[in-house]
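Dear support,

We are seeing what looks like truncated structure output for some complexes. This example has three components. We would appreciate it if you could run it in full and send us the complete C-alpha cell output so we can diff it against ours.
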Amino acid sequence: MSDGNQPPVDFKVVGQRPIRPDGVDKVTGRAQFGADFHLPGMLTGRIKRSPHAHARIVSIDASAAEKLPGVKAIVTGVDLDVGAGGDIEAGEHAAAMKDVAANVLAGDKVFYQGHAVAAVAATSPEVAAEALDLIVVTYEILPHVIDVDEAMMPGAPVLHDDMYTKGVTPKPAKPSNVAQRHVMGRGDVKAAFASAGVVIEGRYTTAAVHQGYIEPHACVASWGADGQSTIWCSSQGQFLVRAMTARILNLPLSDLKVIPAEIGGGFGGKTTVYLEPVALALSRKCGRPVKLVMSREEVFLASGPTSGASMDIKLAATKDGKITAAEMELRYQAGAFAGSPVNLGCMTAFACYDVENLALVGLDVVSNRPKVAAYRAPGAPMAAFAVESAIDDLARKLDMDPIDLRILNAVKDGAKTVYGATVRYSAFIETLEAVKAHPHYKAKLKPGQARGVAAGFWFNIGGESSAAVHVDEDGGATVVSSNPDIGGSRASMAMMAAETLGLPIERVRCTIADTTSIGFSGSTGGSRVTFATGMAVVEAAQKVVADLKRRAAQTWECDIAHVEWRDGVATCLDPSKNVKPLSMKVLASKSAKTGGPIAAEVSLNAQGAAAGYGVHVCDLEIDAETGRTTVVRYTAAQDVGRAIHPAYVEGQLQGGAAQGVGWALNEEYVYNKQGLLDNASFLDYRMPVASDLPMIDTILVEAKPNPRHPYGAKGVGEVPIVPPLAAVSNAVSALVGKRMTALPLSPVSVLAAMGKG
Amino acid sequence: MARVVSISSKVRDLTGGLDAFDVEAATVRGLIRALEAKFPGLGDLVENEMSLAIDGEIHQDAMLEPLSPGSEVVLIPRISGG
Amino acid sequence: MSRTVVNAIVNGEPVAFLGGGGQSLLDALRDELRLTGTKEGCGTGDCGACSVIVDGRLVCACLMLAPEAEGKRIETIEGLADNGHLHPLQHQFLEQAALQCGFCTPGLLMASKALLDRNPDPTETEVRYWLAGNICRCTGYDKVVRAVMDAAADLRQEEKPR
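Here is the complete output from our reference environment:
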C-alpha cells in the first residue's frame, strides 16, 4: 500500500518484479552450491564425533587408521592454532575464537553429542568411513545437563571450570553454567506495580529449534605448497569464513582466498564455521584438496540451533490498557559455549511498546547441547512469545481488541527504547492499522476456529559493505556484490543499479565476488544486504553516472552543470550547443577516448538502518481427537520502508511466518536421559511441509521509507519470524480456553490443555 | 562533556558497577580514548565489541562521528543478526 | 567395493557409469555423471531435494541404489528445459519468485513435473499434498503452490488444439 503523505515516487525499476538475474541457473540445476565442487585429486573428508553428551577425552589413538591404505591425513584439536585468541564478529554476538576452535575440533573435553573430535581425509567415502571406525577415542564420561533451568541449579554439572558469571558484582566465588547476567531497565518498576490497575504474570518456555536450511554445510579446501590456500564453500559471508578460518589456523588473511558458492539457506546458521578450518587443516597435512560435507544428522547434532528459553514476565497496566511497567527474566540456552542471544532478547522484548518502567534480566546459560548459532532475529522470537502472550492476556482481561490495545501502547517516532536508540522512521502503528483494515481481520471465524494476533520487532543493521559497478563496452552494466545471495539479493542489487543508471533491468547483471575480488563486507545477515550493500551499489552507480556526465561534457565541450542524465542518456541543456544526446551505449563504446574504462567501486560503513515492525494474524482449528492444530488462514503485515523487489519481500514474510509456525507447533530438540538427541532427522524433527500450511497473505506497509537509504529500504528478513510464535499460541489458547505457555504446542500438550491428556 | 550510559553487564565489570558517568570527548575516537583512561579495558571493549547509540542513533565502528556537548552515548552490545 | 557398469537413459541420452556397493542413484548422478543439479538435503528420503523421475515415477534418488538404474529412463533437473527452452514450471517459478535460496528448487520442479504428468489440473490441496515430500525452508510454499497451479494452466493451454 502506498502512503498519502509521501510525494508520489516515479521509479522505473524499483518496485517492479523482474526475474532474478541468477534465476535460470537455479531452475535448471546449473547453480553451484557448496557440495557441487569437484577438483582433480580431491579427497573425501569425514569427521568423528562424540557419542556422549559430556566427557573428558582421555586419549585419541589414530595409529590404526593412519595405516589404512587410502587414508591421507588425520587431524585433531591439537592441529588447530588459535594463537592469542580474541573475539570476532560472528552472528548475533562476538564469539570467543578459542570457543569456536574448540567447537570445530574438541580440546580436552566434549560438551555435546556430535561434538567433533577428529577428522580424516581419504581417497573414497568408504575408506574415510572405515578410518573413522579405526580411530579409538577413550572417554571419561561426565555427568551432563540439558535443561536451561536445571543447568542453573546448585549442584548441576559445571561445563567449564573457568566460567564465572560476568556482569555480577562482586565476581562469584565459584564457577557455574551462567556465563553472563545482563541487566537493563529504566524508571521505577516497583512503584508502577504498586499503583497498577491490572497485573499480568506468566512463565513461558520455548524449545531449541534448528534453522533447518535444506543444504547441509559443505566446503572444499585446497592448501597450496606456498601456503596460499583456497576454500570453496557455502556460507553467509566469504569474508567471515576467511577471518575465522585464518584465525583458527593462524594464517595471514592474504594467504587465504574464499570463493562463495551459492548458499542453500542459512537463516543465521551459516554465520560461523564448522568444516572449513578442518578441511584446510586436512589439506595442509596431505597437500591435496579435501571436501567435507555434513550429513543431515550432523547438521542437527553439531550445527547451531537457536536457544531454547525459559522466561518469567510480569506486566502492570492501567484499567484502560496502558502498560505502565514490565519485569522480565529471560534464561536462554547458549549450548556448550557462552553466547546465547539473550541480550538481544532483552533489547527487543518491549521494543514495540512505549513502556515507562522496565526491568529486564537476561541470563546466558551453557548446557550440554550444540553451541547455538544465530537464527533469524536472534533472541527476539522467544522474548516476543512471552510478551505478546502476556499482552493477549491483558486484552482478554480488559475485554479490549488486541490490535487496539497494541495501538494504544505502540512506540511512536521520538520514543526512547530501553537500549538507548530513539525510534525513527517507524510505521508500527500504520502496520497495526493496516491489519485492522484487512479483510482477514474482519472475516468471521467459523465454529471451532480461533484467531491470534501478535507483533514483532527487529533492529536491522547496516555496517561494512563493498560493491562495484562496471560499465560494459556495449553500454550494459555489471554489479559486483560482496554478499552471498541467499534469497534473491542479486535481483535487488541489479535493480537499484539499473534505477540509478537509467538502464532497463535486463542490461544489468550481478555477480558475487570472492574475497580477493572486491573490498571487505560483513556477512549476509542482520537484514543488512539490501540496505548496506545496496547503498554501496547505488553510490557506485552514482559515481558512474557522474563520470558519464563528465565524459559527455568533455565531448560537447560544455559545462558539466549543463549535462542531464536521464534514462541512460546524457542530454546537453546548454542552448548554445547544437548536439545530439549521448546514450550510455555510445559513451561506453568510446570510453577509451574519454579516459578509459568506466567503473566505480565503493566501500562504506552504512549507518542509519531503520528498525522493522511486523504484525501477524493467524486463524486455526484443532482436531479435538488428535490435538493436531491446523492453520487455516494467515496474514503477515510489515513495515518494510520501501520494497525494492516486492515479490521477494513477500517471500521473506511468508518464509519467516512458516518457520515461526513450525517453531510454535512442531519443532524441538528432543533429548533422552543420556543427553542424546532423539530426533536428529527431518522425519522426526518435522518442519512444516506444503500440506501443513495455507496461503500466507502479506501486507507490505510502505508508509515510512527509510530516508537514510537511497531508495528507502529497510531490512525485512528477520522481523517476520518474531510474531508467529505468539500469533499461533494466542489462537490456540483462545480455542482451548487456557493460556498455553510452553512451545511447541504439540498435539500431546494441546490435548492435555483440553483435559484429554 | 558526553553522558555515557551502559546497558551491558560487561561494562559494569570494568566500571566497578557504574552504569552512567560523564566523559570529556568531541568524537567517538576521543570517547574511546577517554573511556580507556578512566576504566582500563573499557575503551578496547567498546571499540571491539559494542555499538553506540549517540543521541538515539545506533552507530557501529563510527570512530569519526562527532559528539556535541551534552550528547548521550549509550553503550550497547553489538547488534548483528541472522 | 566391487562395482559394475550400469547402463541407463538419463535425460534422453544413453549413459554408462560404474556403480555398486551402497552407492545411491543420487551419488551416481552427482559423482559419476557430474549432474549436480540433483541435491542432497538429508540422504534419508525426507526432504525431496533429490527428486528425480525414474520410468515415469517420482523417486528420491538417495533411496535408490545406483545399480537399480540399469535399463531405466531417468529424468533429472538438467533435462527439464527443452533445448534451452524453459519448461512452463521453470518459467512460472521464476515469474512468481517461487524460490529464494534455490536449493530445494530442482527437487520441487521434478516433483511438480511428476504431478502434472499425471494430473494436468490439480487443486491447491492436491498440489500441497503431492509436494509434502519436498521441504522448502525459505518460501513458506505460497509462491511455490501458485507457480505449480499456473504452470498447470499454461500446460493445459499448450495442449489445446488450435
